[in-house]
Amino acid sequence: MSDLPENEKDLLYYGNEQLIKTALVNILENAAKYGSSSEIVIALTFNKGKDAELCITDRGIGMDKAEVDLIFEPFYRSQNANVFKGSGIGLSLVKSIFGLHNLKYDVKSTKGRGTRFFVFFPPAKGLPEAQHTETFAHEEIS
Ligand SMILES: Nc1ncnc2c1ncn2[C@@H]1O[C@H](COP(=O)(O)OP(=O)(O)OP(=O)(O)O)[C@@H](O)[C@H]1O
Ligand SMILES: [Mg+2]
Questions:
Q1: Is 29 within the bounds of a domain?
Q2: CATH number at residue 89
Q3: How many angstroms separate the CA atoms of 119 and 116, rounded?
Q4: Residues of the chain by 3-state class (helix, strand, coil), percent to 5
Q5: Which of 57, 66, 103, 112 is the most exposed place for a label (fewest CB within 10 A)?
Q6: Which 3 state secondary structure label does DSSP give 81?
Q7: Count: domains in the chain
Q8: CB 57 less than 6 A from any atom of ligand 1
Q9: In degrees rounded to 5, what are phi and psi of residue 130?
Q10: Cα→Cα distances 33→12, 46, 86, Å
Q11: β-pair partners for 121
Q12: Whose CA is nearest to atom 1 of ligand 1?
């Protein structure tokens, strides 16, 4: 793992703060809920000029590969999750939010062992272009 950058601007990511927070809170809530009270490890790996990698790991109930393939579908809940409260909506929202931001993500999981969720934040390329606004001359309506 590399050290954090000297210039904290190298860690900037431009996106919708509220939406990104909502997505990350959903992932963390899942780690807490399905993590069997184990320690949750949150790691940020920085590689200059490459994606910063956020990694959230729990040692909880885990999932089969077939289940992992379905967890971003609305209302999907795996069988071993039934004892926990939930509606199966959180990760479909996460998928939409990351999709809107073009953010890559991945999930690795082993049933009975735990789950690791990755989010890849690309290096910032400067502030987004200022929004184009048009002004219209007031025209008399005849
Ligand atoms: N960290 C995890 N460990 C094990 N299973 C998980 C984990 N995160 C998600 N899952 C599985 O993916 C399913 C979908 O997750 P999602 O967050 O969308 O819904 P939920 O947690 O059931 O309900 P909510 O809408 O309240 O978030 C869960 O029901 C569970 O089966
Ligand atoms: Mg959830």
A1: yes
A2: 3.30.565.10
A3: 10
A4: 25, 20, 55
A5: 66
A6: helix
A7: 1
A8: no
A9: -60, 145
A10: 30, 28, 10
A11: 52
A12: 31
Residue type, 85: K
Tokens 């789950």, located at residue: 115
Q: Is residue 36 part of a domain?
A: yes
Count of CB atoms within 10 A of residue 69's CB?
Answer: 12
Contact 33, 84 (CB under 8 A): yes
* Structure tokens given for 74: 């609305």
Domain annotation covers residue 23? yes
For the CA of 80, the closest atom of ligand 1 is 31
Residue with tokens 């959230």: 56
- pTM of model > 0.85: yes
Listed in sequence order, the residues at least 6 apart from 50 whose beta carbon sits closer than 8 Å to its beta carbon are 123
- Asked if residue 56 has its Cβ within 6 Å of ligand 1, the reply is no
Q: Is the CB of 63 under 6 A from ligand 1?
A: yes
Residue numbers of the domain that contains 56: 14-121
pLDDT in tens, the chain (142 residues): 457 788 878 888 999 999 999 999 999 999 999 999 889 999 999 988 899 999 999 999 999 999 999 999 999 999 999 999 999 999 999 999 999 999 999 999 999 999 999 999 998 876 555 555 555 556 666 6
